């Protein structure tokens, strides 16, 4: 009777939700607006907790057990160092990218002006001076002064439009800053009280959910946290190493925009599989405008460094932290990108890894219940009678 009542209540809610679907969506949007600062704070706390925990462990390892003041100060100091580290990286990237980006835009206009006559000569040679083709090609002109005027007029129109909506813009900025302040404060509270919050969550779960199901939920949450943390730390470290490899290699080969391309590839490499190739395309275009031969050399260098990174560095840095085969990594990136863009690519790999691990353990448990020890392409091996009663360990997949 209890299950029947629950089914009736669920069906009633489902019918009402489908009948008043627009109202339900508006209610969910309103709830999300309220919850968003706290969700953002949780995400910030999760990201900051990875380097902060590392620093805290290093500091606590050097603090003696009887030093209570040092133990209490370890977490605030590690949090402060993490914030300084993140802010330092952002400032370093800004000071490294913005000056080079400004110089690149100026050089790019000059390079395009010089490149168009060369391209016209190449087309003239390949087309054997075909008059119809050359009429179209000769119409290609690039005037830096006109481009600058167009950019200034576009900026002026943008400023004019922004001035017309100054109050709404100020309101949006103020709202964004307030949201970020609330989220950051909430993140700091989570990081300072994470052990206490963890204990409170465990009490709530065990209070309202049967013990067996509660243990399963907590194990899944623990697996999810470990997978996401390992993936985040490994992906960031791998991106830094790859960016430094490009900066050093391009500097040795005396290619233009070495620092800019290295930073760009480091950031795009955070997107699994496809990210670094976006940086390669942009870097190839920038170098091509200066020296087409060096652009070809850059593509060769990129492919070589990608092979080194994919076969040597990535397996050791990220390794099996997500425990996901390559085919499912590609599927996770594709599905996540289609659903949520770049954020989806980053989220879906560890998320699919969690589901993959849970489903894998579930499959092995089902095989154990059916007394099946190993399945090969041609045979099915069953457990001996004395093995059935013993504890079961999930074997490692090759």
UniProtKB/TrEMBL annotation:
GO-annotated cellular components: plasma membrane
Alphabetic keyword roster: Cell membrane, Membrane, Transmembrane, Transmembrane helix, Transport
Pfam families: AI-2E_transport
Compartments where found: Cell membrane
Record keyword Membrane present: yes
Principal location class: membrane
Topology of this chain in the membrane: Multi-pass membrane protein
GO BP of this protein: transmembrane transport
UniProt family annotation: Belongs to the autoinducer-2 exporter (AI-2E) (TC 2.A.86) family.
Name listed for the protein in its UniProt record: ATP synthase F0, A subunit
């Amino acid at each position: 009777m209890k299950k029947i009542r629950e089914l009736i209540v669920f069906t009633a809610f489902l019918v009402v939700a489908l009948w008043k679907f627009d109202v339900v969506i508006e209610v969910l949007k309103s709830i999300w607006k309220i919850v968003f600062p706290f969700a953002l704070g949780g995400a910030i706390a999760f990201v900051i907790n990875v380097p902060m925990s590392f620093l805290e462990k290093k500091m606590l390892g050097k603090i003696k057990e009887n030093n209570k003041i040092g133990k209490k100060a370890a977490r605030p100091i590690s949090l402060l160092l993490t914030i300084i580290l993140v802010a330092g990286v952002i400032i370093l990237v800004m000071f490294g990218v913005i000056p080079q980006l400004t110089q690149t835009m100026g050089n790019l206009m000059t390079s395009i002006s010089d490149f168009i006559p060369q391209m016209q000569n190449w087309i003239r040679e390949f087309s054997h001076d075909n008059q119809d083709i050359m009429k179209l090609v000769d119409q290609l002109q690039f005037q830096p002064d006109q481009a600058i005027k167009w950019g200034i007029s576009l900026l002026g129109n943008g400023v004019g439009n922004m001035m017309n909506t100054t109050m709404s813009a100020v309101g949006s900025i103020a709202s964004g800053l307030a949201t970020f302040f609330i989220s950051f404060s909430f993140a700091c509270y989570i990081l300072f009280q994470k052990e206490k919050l963890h204990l409170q969550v465990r009490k709530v779960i065990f209070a309202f959910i049967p013990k067996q199901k509660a243990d399963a939920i907590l194990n899944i949450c623990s697996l999810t946290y470990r997978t996401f943390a390992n993936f985040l730390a490994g992906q960031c470290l791998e991106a830094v190493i790859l960016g430094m490899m490009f900066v050093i290699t391009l500097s040795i080969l005396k290619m233009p925009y070495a620092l800019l391309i290295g930073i760009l590839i480091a950031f795009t490499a955070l997107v699994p599989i496809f990210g670094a190739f976006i940086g390669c395309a942009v870097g190839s275009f920038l170098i091509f405008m200066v020296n087409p031969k060096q652009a070809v050399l850059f593509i060769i260098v990129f492919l070589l460094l990608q092979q080194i990174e994919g076969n040597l560095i990535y397996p050791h840095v990220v390794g099996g932290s997500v425990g996901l085969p390559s085919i499912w990594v590609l599927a996770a990136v594709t599905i996540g990108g289609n659903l949520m863009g770049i954020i989806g690519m980053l989220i879906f790999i560890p998320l699919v890894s969690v589901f993959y691990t849970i489903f894998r353990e579930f499959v092995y448990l089902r095989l154990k219940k059916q007394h099946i020890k190993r399945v090969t392409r041609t045979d099915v091996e069953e457990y001996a009678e004395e093995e059935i009663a013993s504890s079961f360990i999930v074997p490692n997949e090759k």
